[in-house]
Amino acid sequence: MIYPQATSYAIDALAFVAGLDAGTTIKTRELSEILDIPEQYLGKVMTQLVKKRYISSSKGPTGGFELAVDPEKVTLYRVIASLDSLTPLEEDCVMGLGKCSSETPCAFHERWTKFKDQVIGEAQKLTLTDLSKILLNKMRMRRNNQKLSFEEMLEPHNK
After folding, report:
1. What are phi and psi of 56, to 5 degrees?
2. Under CATH, to which class is 5-67 assigned?
3. What confidence tens digit (pLDDT) does each residue in 102-126 have?
4. Helix, strand, or coil here: 134?
């Protein structure tokens, strides 16, 4: 994993909420069951997303979480950056040797740099709307016990 587990959960939660109809709320318990994320941990992640103003929350029997941003204007890169999870992606050595550079490269540095630049480029293009479609495809594939290739996950984005 390139970034922390909490960031992965936040991305999945945002992607799911972005796919809901406008004005639709979802409770932590429901989202936890759907995404298979521990409820208490997801609650903390959702609190962070509220603080970052990606989602809003309301209390009461009809309360829950709903998207607070335009899903077409928020990119994966922006979300990762706001959750302070870019450093491992942009700076850490994939071989676990700390921070390698072109001056002090590890054996995999050149290939990792090319791959990392591609990942960052895609993250700057993928919106919450795209992520919502990807998550939906991923969930469908899991439900049908099908293997999911990277290309299939990006399929909604490439159309």
Report:
1. -120, 160
2. mainly alpha
3. 888 888 888 888 988 898 899 999 9
4. helix
